[in-house]
Design a protein that fits this description.
Blueprint: E1 2-6, E2 9-11, E3 17-24, E4 31-38, E5 45-52, E6 59-61, E7 69-74, E8 79-84, E9 93-100, E10 114-115, E11 119-123
Parallel strand pairs: 2-11
Antiparallel strand pairs: 1-3, 3-8, 4-5, 4-9, 5-6, 7-8, 9-10, 9-11
Length: 125
């Protein structure tokens, strides 16, 4: 399994970024892709996740990003996106995407069996 996260960068407060997570190397008709983030000196925290299947695209968000971030997927490209708007300095972190084959949405990083390398997001003026 390979997960490739990209799209991070430096943005001013109030700005936007779109992260991408390209997944490959596995076969499943029903799985979840989650986004997590880890700020310096802090635990890795769940941000969002999405169901990836032909008939279900349910999405889930942490309270800290709800209303500002939107997760979506493009099945044909096996890619999941995280659109981040109204960014705040506290959103600064390394962002990771991860794959869960367990069949239910989860905020627990232990439920995700495969992880991509992170992409740095820095929100600063």
């Amino acid at each position: 399994v390979q997960l490739q996260a990209s799209g991070g960068g430096l943005v001013q407060p109030g700005g936007s970024l779109r992260l991408s997570c390209a997944a490959s190397g596995f076969t499943s008709d029903y799985y979840y892709i989650g986004w997590f983030r880890q700020a310096p000196g802090k635990e890795r925290e769940w941000v969002s996740c999405i169901t990836v299947s032909r008939s279900d695209a349910s999405d889930y968000y942490s309270d800290s990003v709800k209303g500002r971030f939107t997760i979506s997927r493009e099945n044909a490209k096996n890619t999941v996106y995280l659109q981040m708007n109204s960014l705040k300095p506290e959103d600064t972190a390394v962002y990771y995407c991860a794959l869960s084959l367990l069949g239910y949405p989860s905020m627990d990083k232990a439920d995700y069996g495969s992880w991509g390398k992170g992409t740095q997001v820095t929100v600063s003026s």
